[in-house]
Every structure is written in C-alpha cells, then in structure tokens.
Amino acid sequence: MFPCVGSPLPAGEVLAAWGLTTSVAQPAQRSYLNDMIPSAQRATVLSFHSLLGSAGGIGTQPALGRAADLNGYGFSLLLGGVISACALPFLALSRAQRDPADEATTLVATE
C-alpha cells in the first residue's frame, strides 16, 4: 500500500497533524478577515470568501485527483503546492496595506 514505509501509520499521523493545523488556521483566518473588513461590508465579503473556498474545492480537488491518476501522487502534491503558492502575491499585497489587523495584540483576561 505504501511502498516507502512499512505501515500506513505515518500517513495517519500526517493526516492528524494536517487536521489539527487546519482547525487552528481557519478560525485565525476568519478573525483576521473580520478585523480587516469594515462592518458595512463584512457579511458580503465573508460570504464571497466562503463561496470561493467551496468553489475552489469543487473544482480543484477533482482536478488534482485526475492529475494523480495520470501522473502519480507526487505530481499531484506538487501541483497543489504550485496552486497554493499563487496566493502569495495576494498575501504580500494585503500585508503592504499595513492594516491594524496585521499587528498581534495581547489578550487581557477580564474578571
């Protein structure tokens, strides 16, 4: 099943780490967007963000699966990385705006 490893256990560990990472990253991303968007446009922008995420999954996942069928999993993972890297210029443009949401703040416990 996994020619480079003796058992499927490492794949399960990677999958678990990926799930944990995603469960932390998604709320942080939503919080970041909430801080950047004026309240009058927040619902529209967040809905559009969700729509693009769903549409990306609907289109990208089958395409990457087909790429894996034709060229192997390594190629499919590389292609997924290239697609993800396409977001880097947009991240740089967002950071160049120097929005207050880019600065980390200290949380103070209230009693």
What would your notes on this structure say?
By secondary structure, the chain is an all-alpha fold. It has one domain. It contains four helices and no strands. α2 runs antiparallel to α3. It starts with 8 loop residues before the first helix and ends in a 15-residue tail after the last helix. The model has no long low-confidence stretch (mean pLDDT about 80).
Structure, briefly:
The chain is an all-alpha fold and 111 residues long. The protein has helices spanning 9-36, 39-71, 73-85, 88-96.
SSE map:
Blueprint: H1 9-36, H2 39-71, H3 73-85, H4 88-96
Helix pairs in contact: 2-3
Distance between the termini: 55 Å
> Into how many domains do the coordinates divide?
1
Radius of gyration: 18 Å
The counted number of beta strands is 0
Structural classification: mainly alpha
DSSP summary: helix tally: 4
Query: Roughly what is the average pLDDT, rounded to an integer?
Result: 82
